Amino acid sequence: MTVNRALALRLTSLLMKHKMSKYRLEKISGMSHSAMIHIFNEDYKDIKLSTVIRFARAFKMSLKEFLNDPLFENLDLEIE
């Protein structure tokens, strides 16, 4: 699994949990519409830490809380 796929899955899970739309996440996090499309379509090979921090803040979570998910514990996450 790629890092982008893990992030997209985590975001989808949190969106459902918080009953939030992708559009709302886009606005709260300050991410561009284009970047959101690329993340959810898993087009990126690498994700910047600053991007992950923006998403964590949008969900009012610490970075540790955001990354505390089995998706990110996979030692086989593909990094390029």
Shape, per Cα inertia axes = globular
CATH topology: 434 Repressor (Amino-terminal Domain)
Residue runs with pLDDT of under 50 for 5 or more positions: none
**CATH architectural category:** Orthogonal Bundle
CATH superfamily label: lambda repressor-like DNA-binding domains
Report the average pLDDT across residues.
92
What's the helical proportion of residues? 55-70%
Q: Write down the CATH class.
A: Mainly Alpha
Descriptive notes:
By secondary structure, the chain is mainly α. The chain has a single domain (3-72), classed as lambda repressor-like DNA-binding domains (434 Repressor (Amino-terminal Domain), Orthogonal Bundle). Helices cover 59% and strands 0% of the residues. It is built from 5 helices and no strands. The model has no long low-confidence stretch (mean pLDDT 92).
